[in-house]
Design a protein that fits this description.
The structure is a single chain. It contains four helices and eight strands, in the order H-E-H-E-E-E-E-E-E-H-E-H. The chain is α/β, with parallel strands linked by helices and about 250 residues long. Strand 1, helix 2 and strand 2 form a beta-alpha-beta unit. Helix 1 packs antiparallel against helix 4.
Length: about 250
Amino acid sequence: MKTPRRFRPAPVPSLAAAVLLPLLLYLGYWQLQRADEKRVLQAEYDARAAGPAVQVEPRLQSPGELQFYRVVAKGFYQTDHQVLIDNRVHQGLAGYDVVTPLRLQDSDIRLLVNRGWIPQGQDRRHLPDYKTPKGLQEITGVATVPSEKYFMLAGHRPLDRGWHVVWQHMDLERYAAAVPFPVQPVVVLLDPKSPAGGFTRDWMRLDAGIAIHQGYAFQWFMLAATLVGIYLYMSLRGSDADNQEEDPS
């Protein structure tokens, strides 16, 4: 007669499950939290961007006054202190985002304008051509604050020995500390329909990553379920083997 299986967990698998299961569950819930954060940001973005355009004032403003709003400003592009943001990909091609300071009309304050994406060109030793229009420009677009969380393999190159055009990330604090003029604390994503010297402007919605976070959460939860299944199988199998040794029939 076959003896019923009993749950007899071994010490090592129990310890491994006790450590790994909470970690996997935490990672799953963390990804869901990231998805919710992006959903809230996108709702705020849509609400502000759908409203009337906000005029950028000739004074230093706080990020909260401009972030996510559709803004309008007049001024003159400055060719000095332009930045090419590296490692930007569009339709599978590598390139740069072109960020140009706009000197606000009747002010010494600059407003950074992301004029869009340009392809990299033949190689990194020769920068692509990115012409900048002259004269008074009226720009419209959505004001954003670049994320302060980014990964770099090496530290920033110092700017005390000349201006470096190519940057790995748009760091507003670093930029403001390196230039001899005041800078508004936002970067405007130039409207795709604006004629103010723009390039490819296929801006990604903030909620584009929600499904990715949800997918990662599903993977973590599935790993947690698999861990529980393996742990139960090993514990029951071990008790079954013990029963066979005890029952000589």
